[in-house]
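Let us practice reading a record.
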Amino acid sequence: MIRLKSLLKEQVMITPEAKEWLDKICNQSQSTWTADNRGVTVQGNFDCSAYLLQDFKGVTFIKVTGDFDCSDNNLTSLVGAPQIVGRTFNCMMNKLTSLKGAPRTVGVSFVCSDNNLTSLEGAPETVGGSFVCENNPLKTLKGISKKIGARILLPAQLNGWSIDKEQVIGFLKQQNVNLKPDFDPEEDIKIQQH
């Protein structure tokens, strides 16, 4: 009996509604999920895009080994999002004003375009591929990932002023951002057209 109680304490509480939601999304993606005392881990992809979500239904994700797509919802926060994503994390087309709760590590691309972000504080520490943040009213690039493995796509303006590649390069150097070895600003920095 004591062993059973300790096992139950080790499990994170998943509501019936959240369990049904996890099962539905994972079944569509042919993925599986497990829960422990820290939260939910998904083996495979998790695509909850276009579900009109305002949050992650009380679920705290720890890791998703494939893609995590929560785009085209009504999310105002990423609290509960996985902290490790094996491939791409896509949260574009939501109502985000902050990246607080975003993953710490993304294996391929991080996409946060078409939100209401004014800062990149809370962005992943490491993005193995592209960092995509177009169509946001950014005031600063502060908080941009410390390691980016491919391209950087940014809006045309910061704080209402047009930006150019030289300014971006200067900021990245000032912030000691680790870029891919063959980084070419002409090819790898894309600034959205007005």
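A brief commentary: The longest helix spans residues 16-29.
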